[in-house]
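Dear colleague,

Thank you for sharing your sequence with our group. We've completed the structure prediction you requested, and as agreed, I am returning the results in plain text so they can be pasted directly into your records. Please verify that the sequence below matches your submission; if there's any discrepancy, let me know and we will rerun it promptly.
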Amino acid sequence: MIEARPLMDAPDHPALSAPIDGADAVDASSAVEFMREALIKISEEEIGAVAELVARKQALLGPALTEAALRPANAAAVRPILARVFATRRRSDEILTAVGAPILANEIRELIHGSGSPAGRFTRFDEALPGLDGPVRRELAGECLHFADPERQWLWARWMWDPEARTGSLPLLMVEGFDFSGADAGAVYLRVGAATSAVVATADDLGFRRMRASPFAVDVYLAAIYGIYLYTVTRLRMTQEFNRVIPQLPDLVRRLLGVYRLEA
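Please find the predicted structure tokens below.
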């Protein structure tokens, strides 16, 4: 059984003064332990099935993220996006009231299709929408980039890395000195991408070869690992009655990835 271990020390810890990337970034023993524990509760076949659902989500969401679809800059252009992004799907009206459809559509278009680096575009998006909570802004930006170009852009969700709580599935897999910090949201997005890439790069060596089966497989594996962490923490802190209402891992993974009840 996996014990919940502390994540990383405070941002000013000396060990975090320099980024660690590549093969040395992943804590192989922790990664193997978490994945073996996850595969007790969700099979590789189920992981593949969820990855297919995420691919279907991309097929449904992708057309709304094209430059042509965003060009009208009205509510009709952004509602299909808000309805499919996990962090915004139940808050569409609230978000449109707080931000305004033209501003939101233009910022999503600049985020995906604008000039400059992905990190720079991510930071611009984050800073341009102060009417949205920070975690919501970042998750919206991460899903838009990932589902617009899943082969080149990665996901960033709170369950992967939460800068405020300093929790998530990624730090559970990384060596203690891996630095997730950054001067702005775009810089942190790059560190999340570096961590995700390191996990995929070392998957074969760790014995999890299906990680490369699709650009969404790593998302499913990371969601499963977060589920194991969540079960461990709640089992330590909560009553048995409360634990019973937590979904089983396959359903929890679907919920985290926004594909539990994927509608056409």
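Summary note from our side: The radius of gyration is 18 Å.

Kind regards,
the structure core
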